[in-house]
Amino acid sequence: MDIGSATVKLVELKERKGGQFQLVRIGVEPLSPEAIVDGSIMDSSLVVDAIQKLNDQTGVKSASFATSVSGHSVIIKKIELPVMEPEELAESIQWEAEQHIPFDINDVRLDYVTLTGPEEMAVGAEQMEVLLVAVKREKVNDYVSVISQSGKSPTVVDVDAFAIQNAYELNYDLDPLKVVALINIGAGVTNINIIARGQSVFWRDLSTGGNQFTEALQREFNLSFDQAELLKRGESVGSYSASDARKVLDGVSAEMANEIQKTFDFFAATSSEGAVDELVLSGGGALTLNLQEVLRERFGVPTELLNPFRRIHFKETDFNREWLESIAPMLAVTVGLAIRKVGDGKINLLAEGRRPVVARKAKPTLGLGGQDPNNLLVVAGFVLGALAVGGWWYQLNAELTARQRQVKAAQRRYAELEPIIKQVEEFKKKNDDLERKVQVIKDLKARQKGPVRIMDHVSRALPELVWLEDMSVIGATLNLRGKAFNTNAVAAFIENLGEVEEFKEPDPKNIQIVGREGNVYDFQMSITVRPPKLDGADEDVEAES
Ligand SMILES: Nc1ncnc2c1ncn2[C@@H]1O[C@H](COP(=O)(O)OP(=O)(O)OP(=O)(O)O)[C@@H](O)[C@H]1O
Ligand SMILES: [Mg+2]
């Protein structure tokens, strides 16, 4: 089911022997332009109604639906990684994706496919290419939800550009020497997917499409949206005929060619694949009168419409060939989705980038013990049990890996921060020392046992790791009591004091270490104070008790 902004399209195929498909059901239902705007579902009830109508009209049997998303919120990246085992890739892809996706990784659904084949890996390739797709979780959920609400089960969510490629590969032979541009022109979006060497090498979604033509006709002839749509499809509206419309349409086609040209220029500048050799057009917009011719002339390369039913069988009694062919290009995405299967190794945003590693390993062959149905039941029970345990194990393992990654990240962060933490601790210690000194001086000041000038000298002489607990000046004697972290610090203090002119050289006899507690020494000392020189205003040092 292709949920476009102009039409919802449904195709059901039946697989025949030899990998061929037969068309079983098909339906197209128009959607009001306000239901989906800019690739976002704005009015889900309108979309659910359209889906339900299609389900009823076609009588589709399959319960499981594949759908796709497109537009600027779809991120597609090709990334290079060292060659690794699929299990390892599955575990690390989330982390890798974080480096390449401009959204919070928790807000997106992502999936990936490995482009480097096993043959290249076998001949010793060191790097491998991985195609990564990420889409805002909310957008995927919206598309999934409208299908669920119609009573069907959404099992695959792909991207429009890759769905067209599926349809092209199913119906045409890929020429590995040619560079083919698949251009799907919808109503609001044009998806471009360039194929070279049999692989998708470039993608771009342009915000242009069939609406551009309709709007130009509306402006030119002052018509309603619906009238302009009719005129665009070749019907006369009032006095305006298809030939009146033609000039306006050709102008828009030329603008569209410019947009496509810009994309090709960008492709040429960023890749070594060479020029585009062929254009293959799809989407309802590709049916616009004369657009194909305008593009063919502009790019000078073969240009054709993609017929997604080219190799699909259908009963002429069930489906009108002419009708089918007239709308075929519009159903390219839908056919590309209808051939998808869960677990087919292609992009499925519902797989969440957590591919079931166990399921991708070589299948072990089980001895089924003949055709005894009991044996089959036992085997089925065993397989179901194993799947349940496998699923449970896988879940636990994924959680464990995620936790291990978090622990590693935290350890890395701690290693980065450790030197800074140490520095902060040192600063804190120094700060504490300083605060202690300031406090002592404050206390001393409060007690005012020594004249201010003497206090000032003493505090200046205090080295690091020494602090005072008491100071008094009695007559001409300065008594100090304090603590120090080591005796060298005390020595440094004495030396500093000795340099003060008003203090007589401290007499070692008067200096005592009176106690010790761990690394902290208690000391006391007394120093004789000389009377200050009276040389001006500094005469506040007269000794006092
Ligand atoms: N015969 C036609 N001539 C011209 N334009 C047509 C014709 N048939 C359909 N269209 C245009 O094709 C567009 C619809 O195509 P399509 O169904 O591929 O778009 P969509 O998937 O709904 O849109 P999108 O993918 O942009 O959300 C509309 O703009 C419609 O007017
Ligand atoms: Mg579309």
What does this structure look like?
- The protein is 43% helix and 23% strand.
- β16 and β17 form a beta hairpin.
- 32% of the residues are buried.
- It is an alpha+beta fold and 545 residues long.
- The radius of gyration is 41 Å and the shape is elongated.
- It contains 15 helices and 19 strands.
- Among the domains are: 173-309, 2-Layer Sandwich (Nucleotidyltransferase, domain 5); 365-445; 448-528, Gyrase A, domain 2 (2-Layer Sandwich).
- Residues 356-378 and 535-545 have low confidence and may be disordered.
- It binds adenosine-5'-triphosphate and magnesium ion.
- Residues 2, 4, 160, 186, 283, 333 line the site of magnesium ion.
What bound compounds does this protein have? adenosine-5'-triphosphate, magnesium ion
| CATH topology (level 3) name of the domain at 173-309 | Nucleotidyltransferase, domain 5
Question: Can you count the helices?
Answer: 15
CATH homologous superfamily of the domain at 173-309, by name?
ATPase, nucleotide binding domain
CATH domain class of the domain at 173-309: Alpha Beta
- Strand pairing plus helix content: what structural class? alpha+beta
Q: Alpha-carbon distance between the termini?
A: 102 Å
